[in-house]
Amino acid sequence: MAKLTRKRKEALAKYDKSQQYPISEAVKIVKDVTYTKFDASVDLNIRLGVDPRKANQMVRGTVALPHGTGKTVRVLVLCTPEKEEEAKAAGADHVGLDDYIQKIKGGWTDIDVVITMPSVMAKVGALGRILGPRGLMPNPKSGTVTMDIGKAVLDVKAGKIDFKVDKFGIVHASVAKVNFDDQKIIENARELIHTIVKLKPAAAKGTYIKSIYMSSTMSPGVQIEPKSVTLN
User: Fold this and answer.
1) What pLDDT, on the 0 to 100 scale, is given for residue 168?
2) What is the C-alpha separation between 166 and 148, in angstroms, rounded?
3) How far is the C-alpha of 110 from the C-alpha of 217, rounded, in Å?
4) How far from 26 is each of 17, 52, 124, 138, 176, CA to CA, in Å?
5) What is the pTM of this model?
6) 184 and 176 in contact (C-beta within 8 Å)?
7) Could you give the CA distance from residue 197 to residue 141 in angstroms, rounded to a whole number?
8) Are 192 and 175 in contact, with CB atoms under 8 Å apart?
9) CB of 120 closer than 8 Å to CB of 97
């Protein structure tokens, strides 16, 4: 553990934690201070000036990242038999209905996204206790409850992600991998932030984007100058 602490100290010594950096510099710092041996994700933590306890200040949505997330997304489609071929053709990893519902009830959640159709939501709703806490519950707002199963699978595989403000007013999202080209990380980050800006609730008063931190899976956070991302 001491080794990790030393690495973290070395990482923190490479930049000023209290300073805001333009996004182009922040990306370089995050890459420089990432000390994992595996290909780490690049994460954004965006603090918003909203009160998520109030329904009219909830911020949630989906965004298609122009360069994908770099992750292999494991997709389960819960559908009726006539939709199975469409799901498989689009690249779904698992396709079925009752057998997978039983599997999930037995504790299986080895998936990243669940896509389903409106007609089977009554059956899928019974999995809420298991899927909900893991962020896997399909939702019409995020495009994961739809009749257009094939498109939903293709979108998710191409880098469409869901985001939702947590109870502290923060949106957490992985937008890239550390091995991405700097410009691709910047473009993915901008796409997410611009989408969040467009979703600003009318009831939110004062500063909307309070702070933006970028980090990798194991690196300390680097604060981004909001104007370097929110302005085109």
Assistant:
1) 94
2) 29
3) 20
4) 11, 28, 42, 34, 14
5) 0.77
6) yes
7) 18
8) yes
9) yes
